[in-house]
Please model this.
Amino acid sequence: MLNKDWFIEKINTFLREDESNRMTGVDGSLFWEPDVLIGFCSGNDPIFQEYKKLVGPFHLTPTEAFTKYCELNNIEYDSTENLTVVAFVLPMNPLTKKENLEYSQDWPSERWAHTRLYGEKANQKLWRHLLSELKREFGIEGVAPMLEKKLFRMYREHEDAWQGALASTWSHRHMCFAAGLGSFGLSDGFINERGKAMRCGSFLINHKLPSDADKRAASRREHCIKCGQCVKRCPVGAITMEEGHDKKKCYDKVFSTVPYIGEHYKIPIYSCGLCQVGVSCSNGIPEKKKLRCNN
Ligand code: SF4
Ligand code: SF4
Model:
């Protein structure tokens, strides 16, 4: 039977057993802990139209993504009434969080950089694995828009994108918000029960599953307690209490890490995440009246 338990079992087993989830370039430990958080949202939920204003007019609704995918691949479908977005959060290895907190105030640690590059590859392999298992066990068609070159695009400096900065046609964090998994924080990281230091994923399937829209946060920054700890952690002042997250300033810093990571860790990637560790929301949803810093 296809339900949340099916996804949890498949995902946690993959994270425990698949070699792609091993940090072989460092110490062989896991990138992502086998303790996934998962949520569903109907593909016809009105929130996906709102994202066209919030993220940018190019952000695809599930219906747009699915119909385009079917057209491009000559796949027949009866209707788009049953589309479901499946969104999930993969918790980061606590050792990686600890290292990124202790390593430097300006640069990401080795484990963090490896996680950004190879951990994301494991994440994408997981989407493919789930889509293939859904097809094999239930005959269900699905698509991960971020894996489809003709569906996924990044817009840099796009005039319609939020704050005129980087935005894409499919945002995993917005899918997680829609599926009731948490809310954004001051730093734009996604605060959820497994903590802001995580990686998320999402795809859509042509099969109706019970929506978690009733668990959706009441506001965009519902779980952020405005403790300001992420403001202090950012080395370039890209987060302020007044304005929140300056995407442009942040991306300039993030992309400036490429030479450092290349020289010190010998891998081709950018990364930062200093605002995701050593702050109130690093490991879970912070309690509103009790400011606490957990590593
Ligand atoms: S560190 Fe504090 S201010 Fe920053 S996102 Fe987390 S809860 Fe919000
Ligand atoms: S990712 Fe780095 S540059 Fe961007 S807001 Fe966080 S600490 Fe600042």
